[in-house]
Design a protein that fits this description.
The complex is a heterotrimer of chains A (285), B (349) and C (232). Chain A has 285 residues and is an all-alpha fold. Chain A has helices at 2-30, 37-55, 57-80, 88-110, 136-158, 160-170, 172-177, 182-207, 214-228, 234-254, 262-273, and strands spanning 126-129, 132-135. Chain C has 232 residues and is α/β, with parallel strands linked by helices. In chain C, a hairpin with a 2-residue loop joins strand 9 and strand 10 (207-212). The radius of gyration of chain C is 17 Å and the shape is globular. Classes of the chains: A mainly alpha (285), B mainly alpha (349), C alpha/beta (232). The A-B interface holds A 27, 31, 33, 83, 86, 88-90, 92-94, 96-101, 103-104, 216, 220, 223-224, 226-227, 231, 257-258, 260-261, 264, 267-268, 271-272, 275, 282-285 and B 77, 79, 126-127, 129-134, 136-138, 140-142, 144-145, 148-149, 151-154, 221, 267, 271, 274, 278, 307, 309-310, 312-317, 320-321, 324.
């Protein structure tokens, strides 16, 4: 029973990690929260649906992130960069507005109905691990989640650009003095963040559902995670995502009547105990 | 030897009270204000159609919400994305108070109001310490939390779930009957008066020491602490104040429409309040009210084409990037350039 | 007035201050704090004024242990601090911010401060728009409001020319002796410190080297070694 709980939490957390770390990266770098992140996720999901219909799931998993990365670049070049001089709140609000617009465009194109995506044959069905039967697709999700964490960690730790990202997150002014081109870095981070949102969207298809409200649900979840984890702290975001996933899944099992409220209670409890979030983030004023 | 008296006196006549240096301005503006208030309150009821008045009433309520959002933004630099939960919540508590607990309408109103004051006090105490971005995120989350709470099966008997709740109003509040509240012609003066009272109150608070403290905290919270100020309490007070305004708006809404639903406390309403504030201009009190009216009519127009949400998104982007001062702010700026000495309106250049 | 005992401040594994003992009681003179880079001067001020929680040790102010007190409390009880990186209110006019603080702390003698800091010409300008040197003076002026008993100044001359720094120190010396304030001034400009301060404390690598009158400290071999060592 516990094992199932943990497995389900990990599966959900995998998606959340991909999304929340993207959000945390942009925040750490630019001090901006992209409120349209949920809409990017939704775009990834719907695009994934279309591509999967035409050429199958696996191709969707490759093409959609690339498309989303382009969207990310557009976001960076046409929105974030020109608005660099504006206050962070204003930029956040602009991303909020753009998120709404994107969501409306998607609904306009696809109609306001939910869609379902079939998992590819290899990933459907269940396999038996340690005497327990578990859906293959969720195992796949967990592997993807682990994989992206590992990739992220490797990138941050061992590459020059990753080092730069860490430096700028810690102290933007000093980093700039050291000649780090934070504009180019931003471009990379924003498109990466969008690409990850795209992957998460495609992966979500067979696991959750694709519906017109998914952008709001996801951005709220991500925001909660990012705040709990300490905004800007990627490690914190990952831990928070795991915690969130567990709490969400446990809530739906043990407290089904109030399951929807459990994440919010978690948020309030964390805020009470640690007003700055779990990680070494920059939430407190 | 420096002459002490003049500097001392000038420093005391301080910027706290931006006193008009010319003595005719205050009475003139006061008179203009009273006339505007009087005509605005009485004329539309005679001139406009029922339908126009209906939309205009929505505009008034939206204007109240916009006033609350705008005040917090311009004074404390905080964006509250969850005002709808108090707005709708007020209606729900009012309805539940009467139908479940048999409270009289007046008691129910008072109960709902104070319950929400308490709620915003607790919530504010929790979240106001965070930086403005985190605050924005948390208000969004809190708003969604209330939306979910209302839809829970556990409280379905109380809240009616997705179907909403009819407001069972028997009797009168301050002599005004249920039917009167629902009548657009009757409601307009009530709403108009309420908006003006709220607008003047918020304007007064902005010019008080609380307002000056909030604005200074917004610019440099650390220095304020290092100057001996409690920087936490003023922000909590401001948060409770704006939620009180939202509660009043919500009660009026419930009285006017006779119905509450999950939509009334949803993200859509919070976003509309934000857009109305941005459209009108967040500085001062006239902007948000104008924004509320403008947006209500705009939504009505776009609603016919099914594009209200799109309008919302576009408006947000437009009124931050291109027209950050909003309609009223922009008009004031133009007027100031045309007639620099004549226009006396509080606002930021 | 101010007694620091065994004060240690660690940033993670970095030991910014180690076991510092210091007593400052001379009213009416400037007490300078100098030391090579990384000596922990700013950290000392941060710990004393409450901005940083010390890892160990205590701060006693007028005999009372204030180690747990908030920054705002300390300010209201006469311990004031100015900042190395100018910290003022850019959208308020000079007048507005001075008056705001003055009203809160109950000070009605702003004209003295305005005269001392030479801000008369800038009163109605927005603080964000005036020259950096003037902004520094506003920063110091904000710290002077409310007749503090003890002034902690963090490199008040930062960003100012040598001449302006000296002039600022002269003004401070005048104010401090007039109002019998205890003033602790962290400063990089060693010459200005030796010229204007009645007492000097030298820190090096987080440790307290020596405290004494300028003429003696100047000649102290440990001090010379510390500065030479850092120059090497």
């Amino acid at each position: 029973m516990i094992a199932l709980l943990i497995a389900n939490s990990l599966a959900l957390a995998s998606l959340l990690i991909m999304l929340a770390s993207g959000l945390a990266l942009i925040y750490g770098l630019r001090d901006v929260i992209n409120f349209g992140h949920g809409a990017l996720y939704m775009l990834g999901a719907y695009l994934g649906y279309t591509v999967a219909q035409v050429s199958g799931f696996w191709l969707a998993l490759v093409i959609v992130p690339i498309l989303l990365a382009v969207v990310g670049m557009v976001l960076e070049l046409l929105v974030l960069r020109p608005l660099k001089a504006r206050s962070h709140i204003e930029v956040a609000l602009v991303t909020f507005g753009l998120g709404i617009i994107l969501g409306q465009i998607i609904i306009f194109i696809y109609g306001g109905v939910a869609r379902s995506v079939e998992a590819p044959a290899i990933l459907s069905g269940s396999l038996t691990l340690l005497g327990l039967s578990y859906p293959v697709y969720r195992v796949f999700l967990i592997l993807m989640g682990l994989g992206s964490c590992a990739l992220l960690a490797i990138w941050l730790r061992f590459t020059t650009s990753g080092l730069f990202v860490r430096a700028v997150s810690q102290d933007p002014s000093v980093a700039r003095m050291m000649g780090i081109n934070s504009d180019r870095l931003s471009l990379m981070v924003t498109s990466l963040s969008a690409a990850f949102a795209g992957i998460a969207g495609v992966l979500a298809g067979p696991y959750l559902s694709i519906d017109p409200g998914m952008d709001v649900v996801m951005i709220v979840d991500c925001l909660i995670i990012v705040v709990i984890g300490g905004t800007g702290s990627i490690a914190g975001a990952i831990v928070a995502a795991l915690l969130f996933g567990f709490v969400q899944v446990a809530g739906s099992v043990f407290l089904p009547n109030v399951a929807a409220l459990v994440p919010y209670v978690l948020l309030m409890v964390v805020l009470l105990i640690a007003p700055g979030g779990i990680g070494r983030g920059r939430v407190l004023s | 030897m420096t002459n002490r008296a003049p500097i001392q006196k000038n420093l005391r006549d301080s910027a706290m009270t931006e006193s008009a240096s010319s003595s005719w301005r205050v009475p003139a503006t006061g008179a203009a204000g009273v006339m505007l208030f009087g005509f605005g309150g009485l004329l539309p009821a005679y001139l406009a159609s029922d339908f126009t008045l209906k939309v205009a009433n929505e505009g008034l309520l939206l204007g109240m919400l916009a006033l609350s959002v705008a005040f917090l933004m311009s004074e404390a630099g905080l964006v509250a994305l969850g005002v709808a939960s108090v707005y709708g919540g007020a209606g729900y508590l009012f309805a539940i108070g009467m139908s479940e607990w048999g409270l009289s309408p007046t008691i129910a109103v008072v109960f709902a109001f104070f319950a929400l004051i308490a709620y915003s006090g607790v919530l504010g105490a929790l979240i106001v310490r965070t930086n403005p971005l985190a605050f924005m995120m948390l208000t969004l989350a809190a708003g969604e939390m209330v939306s979910h709470a209302v839809m829970l099966d556990a409280v379905h008997d109380y809240t009616g779930g997705a179907d909403g709740l009819v407001v069972n109003f028997k009797g009168a509040i301050l002599g005004v009957q249920a039917a009167d509240f629902a009548n657009p012609r009757y409601f307009w003066p009530i709403g108009w008066t309420a908006v003006w009272l709220i607008g003047v109150t918020l304007w007064g608070v902005a010019r008080s020491r609380l307002g000056a403290t909030l604005r200074a905290v917004r610019q440099n919270e650390e220095r304020m602490r290092f100057s001996g100020f409690n920087t936490y309490l003023p922000r909590v007070i401001a948060y409770v104040l704006v939620n009180a305004v939202a509660a009043v708006a919500g009660l009026l809404h419930a009285l006017n429409t006779g119905f509450v639903s999950p939509e009334s406390l949803g993200l859509g309403v919070s976003t509309n309040a934000l857009v109305a504030a941005l459209m009108g201009g967040t500085a001062g009190s006239i902007g948000p009210l104008a924004g509320g009216l403008i947006f209500a009519f705009a939504q009505d127009e776009f609603g016919a084409r099914g594009a209200t949400q799109l309008l919302t998104g576009v408006a947000i982007v437009l009124f931050i990037v291109v027209f950050p001062r909003g309609v009223v702010g922009g008009v004031v700026a133009v007027l100031r350039r045309i007639a620099p000495g004549l226009v006396w309106l509080r606002g930021k250049a | 007035m101010l007694k620091i005992e065994g004060l240690s401040v660690n940033y993670g594994s970095l030991r910014a201050l180690t076991n510092v003992d210091l007593e400052v009681q001379d009213q009416g003179i400037l007490h300078g704090v100098i030391g090579p880079n990384g000596a922990g001067k700013s950290t000392l001020l941060d710990a004393v004024c409450g901005r940083r929680r010390p890892t160990a040790g205590s701060v006693r102010y007028r005999g009372e242990d204030i180690t747990g007190r908030s920054v705002a409390w300390r300010r209201r009880h006469g311990m004031s601090r100015s900042f190395q990186r100018t910290s003022i209110f850019p959208d308020l006019s000079v007048r507005e911010q001075l008056v705001l603080i003055a009203q809160h702390l109950g000070d009605d003698r702003l004209d003295d401060i305005v005269r001392l800091m030479d801000l008369g010409a800038y009163l109605d300008q927005k603080a964000g728009r005036i020259a950096y040197g003037v902004q520094r003076r506003v920063d110091v002026a904000l710290a002077l409001i409310g007749r503090p008993s003890i002034l902690l100044m963090d490199e008040p001359g930062a960003g100012l020319s040598a001449v302006e720094t000296l002039r600022l120190f002269e003004h401070l010396r005048e104010l401090v002796s007039e109002q019998k304030i205890v003033a602790v001034v962290v400063e990089h400009d060693v010459e200005a410190v030796f010229a204007c301060c009645g007492m000097v404390t030298v820190l090096d690598l987080g440790c307290h080297l020596v405290t004494g009158v300028p003429s003696e400290v100047r000649k102290d071999s440990r001090v010379i070694a510390a500065y030479l060592g850092s120059a090497a």
